[in-house]
Write a structure and sequence with these properties.
CATH superfamily of the largest domain: P-loop containing nucleotide triphosphate hydrolases
Order of helices and strands: EEEHEHEHHHEHEHEEHEEHEHH
Helix content: 25-40%
CATH topology of the largest domain: Rossmann fold
CATH class of the largest domain: Alpha Beta
Number of strands: 12
Number of domains: 2
Distance between the termini: 17 Å
Radius of gyration: 22 Å
Strand order of the largest sheet: 5-6-7-3-8-9
Number of helices: 11
Strand content: 25-35%
Largest sheet: 6 strands, mixed
CATH architecture of the largest domain: 3-Layer(aba) Sandwich
Shape: globular
Length: about 300
């Protein structure tokens, strides 16, 4: 798979303070990368640099083969952005707004990726079909958030930036949005870079998780790899003959296999538990803040 985002030694300085320091990572085609970190870690700054909305202080950045600071209209047509809030045109009707915005993408349509998305199909995808003829100002907060997502993907982007995309979504809408992300990556090979404070959402969506703390990458890997790097062993519990047992093992699969080989059908209520993503995230951030973590070794282990 081709590299869509390539960042090397990215640095951002405001005055005498470094917001980002030597940030290096890659994102490949069709991958979902979730960017996590506490407030002030540099997540928004990183994304704004990748989107071409902010100039960096130092480092090399390539997005879809081009430096974002030199991004052309044709390049921007390949990129979708869903912001935390959208300064919407409140008096537009929903379908009319999407039709109007879609016209800007039509000149950049290709045989491989037809642009824009047809408004009615797009409305169905984001769950707004029943509200197509309503004015934007009459939509609820959750409905406006769905419209934000529709605006971000109306041009069928090859790369999609999502900043807290499901804020204000109810559980059903959040599940539908997760299905949409999987559809974009599976069917269109869309690459997604997403920020969220919802760690459950991150675990469900991410192929890889990148954690920023203090302006540096402190971990880079799948949720499972991050958990292994922090917790090491998994906790395995089961019952046999009415008695409960608990054991820890680094190679949990091998242990469970041996357990069933010895006791077979006597095993009941088997559960294998590793540290949750929340446990892992908090541990890594605290290590970074205390200076106890070697950032280089952490990212090498978790990749």
């Amino acid at each position: 798979m081709s590299v869509v985002i390539d960042v090397e030694e990215l640095r951002m300085r405001y005055g005498d303070r470094d917001v980002l320091r030597d940030v290096t990572f890659q994102v490949r085609e069709g991958e979902v990368l979730v960017l996590l970190g506490p407030n002030g870690a540099g997540k928004t700054t990183t994304i704004e640099i990748l989107e071409g909305f902010r100039q960096r202080s130092a480092g090399r950045v390539s997005v879809l083969g081009l430096d974002p600071e030199q991004g052309t209209e044709a390049w921007r047509a390949r990129v979708g952005v869903v912001l935390q809030s959208w300064r919407d045109h409140s008096r537009w009707r929903v379908r009319e707004l999407l039709e109007n915005l879609g016209r800007y993408y039509a000149p950049y349509s290709t045989p491989e990726r037809e642009r824009p998305w047809h408004p009615d199909e797009l409305l169905k995808v984001v769950g707004l079909s029943a509200h197509a003829d309503r004015k934007v100002l009459t939509l609820s907060g959750g409905q406006r958030r769905r419209l934000d997502v529709a605006i971000g993907i109306v041009g069928r982007p090859e790369l999609l930036f999502l900043d807290e995309p499901t804020a204000g979504f109810d559980p059903e809408a959040r599940r539908e949005f997760h299905d949409l992300v999987h559809r974009l990556t599976d069917e269109l090979r869309t690459t997604v870079l997403l920020t969220t404070h919802d760690l459950d959402e991150a675990e469900k969506l991410a192929d890889r998780i990148l954690i920023l703390a203090g302006g540096r990458i402190v971990a880079d890997g799948s949720a499972d790899a991050l958990s292994r790097s922090v917790a090491g062993a998994a906790e395995i519990s089961w019952t046999r003959g009415g008695e409960r047992f608990v054991h820890t093992a680094v190679e949990s699969t091998e242990f469970v296999h041996d357990l069933f080989r010895q006791h077979g059908g006597e095993i009941r209520e088997l559960e294998v538990r590793r540290a949750s993503l929340e446990d892992t995230y908090m541990t890594l951030v605290r290590r970074s803040e205390s200076g106890a973590a070697d950032v280089r070794s952490l990212t090498e282990v978790t990749r």
